[in-house]
Amino acid sequence: MILPWGLINNVSISESAGKMKQKIRRKRKKGLMAAIAGGLIILLSGCGAAPPQKQTLVDTAMGTIVSQTLYIQQGEETLDETAAVMQLLAELEQQELSWRIADSEVARINARAQEAISPSLYGILSQIWQVSEDSGGALDVTLGRLSRLWNLDELSVLAENGGSTATEQINIPAKELIQTALADCGWEKVQLSEGTIALPVGMQLDLGAVGKGIACDRIREYLYSQPRITGAVVAVGGSVVTYGQKPDGSSWQVAIMHPREEGAYLGILSLTGENYISTSGDYERYVMADGVRYHHILDPATGHPARSGLCSVTVVCDSGLLADALSTACFVLGPERGLALAEAYGAEALLVEEDGTLHMTEGMKKIFK
Ligand code: AMP
Ligand code: MG
Q1: Using omega within 30 degrees of 0 as the cis cutoff, is the peptide bond preceding 52 cis?
Q2: Gyration radius (Cα) of the chain, Å
Q3: How many Å apart are CA 352 and CA 282, to the nearest integer?
Q4: pLDDT, tens digit, for every residue of 318-344?
Q5: Best mutation site among 106, 146, 147, 210 for ligand 1, i.e. most ligand atoms within 8 A of its Cβ?
Q6: Are 317 and 193 a contacting pair, CB within 8 Å?
Q7: Please, are residues 347 and 317 in contact by the beta-carbon 8 Å criterion?
């Protein structure tokens, strides 16, 4: 995984936000529209020392970087709200979503160790099924067999070295193996009802396409429960939640990473209040082999990395889960069908074609600068 966290680190920890903003502007002027993954950078303007005070933290959770900025009204007692957010993310991963952690609910369902499903996971899967249906199966979280066959986790490691040009660094699965894995996928084959779930033999769930968006929803619940927090912007990998307001009343600024030029950004989303933003891109985890980009967003129709003509999709809406689900689905669908899907959900979307052509919903045109 390559993420713009050097930059976010600077914003949140070692550099004043104002300076950081200038630095990014300078880069933009110079035309250093650099590549990077993770999709989004948060640009913050300084709020001075007066309450509410700014609390920041950059850490890792859910296999990605988490960057938090919370504005907190000071009180008698000292609470570490950023630590509480990290704790809830760890619990979400370990107890519910991760297929790698043996005791999580998803791992237990994958191992057929339980047929019961919690109300929470039932609600999540029900929403995902709806997007799967509306996208004609472009989003399918039952493709665990396929994602493991492509060894998507390994792609992230290779991408940290800037991608690879050596064919031997990616094991392109044989056609027959892809067909066999595909036969074990298909959300419509799952028997799901309130309280129980039954996966067909061979099927494995992989909630990688929605986990970080769900994390943003959980963070929102926590923020609601803390009246002292007056504003927040938290990025969990390529998914971001904004909440409340900054002490100076200015809007949240979230930069969208340039999919092809390292260290640069495409533009900035200017947002007020509560929003959920997710970016899916073919530059986040990929390997180049013989001029072909093998990335981590798979097309369930072909079993291969999606070749829809898009290299990046950003979705903004009022749910973290939906923003994340839609960004993946729109990426697979391509510019026209992707835009139509986002519009059908009342979401705002920015879709970037490989040749740089931008497609935007009407609302996105108002917030994207
Ligand atoms: P995202 O970065 O949110 O677009 O999610 C990509 C991740 O979701 C991958 O690393 C896979 O684990 C999983 N994934 C890839 N393609 C799909 C797809 N078409 N539907 C559902 N999950 C997918
Ligand atoms: Mg997604």
Answers
A1: yes
A2: 20
A3: 11
A4: 999 999 999 999 999 999 999 999 999
A5: 147
A6: no
A7: yes
